[in-house]
Specification:
- This is Acid sugar phosphatase.
- InterPro entries: GNAT-like, HAD-like_sf, HAD-SF_hydro_IIA, HAD_sf.
- Pfam families: GNAT_like, Hydrolase_6, Hydrolase_like.
- By secondary structure, the chain is of the alpha/beta class.
- The protein has three domains: 122 residues, Rossmann fold (3-Layer(aba) Sandwich), CATH 3.40.50.1000; 111 residues, 3-Layer(aba) Sandwich (Rossmann fold); 55 residues, 2-Layer Sandwich (GMP Synthetase, Chain A, domain 3), CATH 3.30.300.
- The chain has eleven helices and 19 strands.
- The chain has a six-stranded parallel beta sheet, with helices on both faces. It has a five-stranded parallel beta sheet with strand order 7-6-8-9-12, with helices on both faces. Strands 16-17-18-19 form a four-stranded mixed beta sheet.
- Helix 2 links the parallel strand 4 and strand 5.
- The longest helix has 12 residues.
């Protein structure tokens, strides 16, 4: 048996926002954890739905944060979307870009021509996150899609994590067009689609990769779809309450407070924990209620409670049987 979780895998694929950094600030302990993986010669890759930066820019930003990275290790939804369009459209086709300069550059490098107006008769609209996206370009995109352009979204993340709390993400901007057009995008490229993960594994020739993410609806669901093990870290968007209520297709293999969990024994992170008692916590089930008592590591309590909620116990039926459990529920927003 491997002495810690990461040692059991031949590639670790990290999401970025909410896992390695928040906006441009590294999350405490993240550079040290990734440095430890590199020291052990464990291959790493980074798969991000954020389409506002190119791979080289992401690698440079990571390196400045103390996480040395190469562009080849970074897979972005912008690059994946441009590659997909290049497969579907003739070279030189006009594509209306809704997003940042990075997405525009990826489209251009794929042999397509970025345009800004529906009058340019774009063959496709590609939509990715960009902090400057506004009504004017969204209006042009709506007109182009109505005229028959293929509509491709890099991702549908409703929010982006930040030190100030969740901010509107590309999914919120996609929702603007969805409302105006009364239809969904033709294609969504990024997570939870598995392509970023399967491409990372293929590039590293990995047979047993681990996906690390902070979002159940993108990172974890994408890993499940790709048939890969996953670790949910609680440093970003998804909360303990979200995990308790997770549908089967959004359930991780492991859960940890942060990236330090990569160096704990896998059996201390596996979810759900069916034992009913562990690490100072006890879960008892009575007709109509499930009670958490005792004290200890919050992640252990979460794993124990997932065994209940994932087997049909509704969240309102959870009860606190000790002051520590009551404090924990309050911290989880229950």
């Amino acid at each position: 048996m491997s002495d810690h979780l990461a040692a059991g895998y031949d590639l670790v694929v990290f999401d970025l926002d909410g896992v390695v950094y928040l906006i441009d600030e590294p999350i405490d302990g993240a550079p040290e954890a990734i440095g430890r993986l590199r020291a052990a010669r464990t291959p790493v890759a980074y798969a991000t739905n954020n389409a506002s930066r190119r791979a080289a820019d992401v690698a440079g930003a990571l390196t400045r944060m103390g996480v040395p990275a190469e562009p080849a290790e970074v897979l972005t939804s912008a690059g994946a979307a441009a590659a997909l369009l290049a497969e579907k459209l003739p070279q030189g086709s006009p594509v209306l870009v809704v997003g940042a300069d990075a997405l525009r550059a990826e489209v251009r490098d794929a042999g397509l021509v970025p345009v800004e107006k529906s009058e340019d008769e774009p063959a496709a609209v590609v939509q990715g996150y960009g902090p400057e996206v506004g009504w004017r370009v969204l209006a042009e995109a709506a007109l182009a899609v109505r005229a028959g352009a293929l509509w491709v979204a890099t991702n549908t993340d409703r929010t982006l994590p930040s030190p100030r709390g969740p901010l509107p993400g590309n999914g919120s901007l996609v929702a603007v067009l969805r409302t105006a057009l009364d239809r969904d995008p033709d294609l969504v490229v990024g997570k939870p689609e598995p392509a970023l993960f399967t491409t990372a594994a293929a590039q590293s020739r990995a047979s047993h990769p681990l996906v690390v993410g902070d979002r159940l609806d993108t990172d974890i669901q994408g890993a499940v779809t790709a048939g890969m093990d996953s670790l949910l870290v609680l440093t970003g968007v998804s909360t303990p309450a979200d995990l308790l209520a997770a549908a089967p297709e959004r359930r991780p293999t492991f859960v940890a407070a942060d990236l330090a969990g990569l160096f704990r024994p896998a059996d201390e992170l596996r979810v759900p924990l069916e034992a009913g008692e562990s690490g100072g916590w006890t879960v008892t089930r009575d007709p109509g209620t499930t009670t958490l008592s005792g004290a200890g590591d919050p992640v252990t309590a979460l794993r124990l409670l997932c065994a209940a909620t994932w087997n049909g116990v509704p969240l309102p039926a959870l009860r606190a049987g000790s002051p520590e459990a009551r404090d924990l529920f309050r911290a989880w927003g229950r």
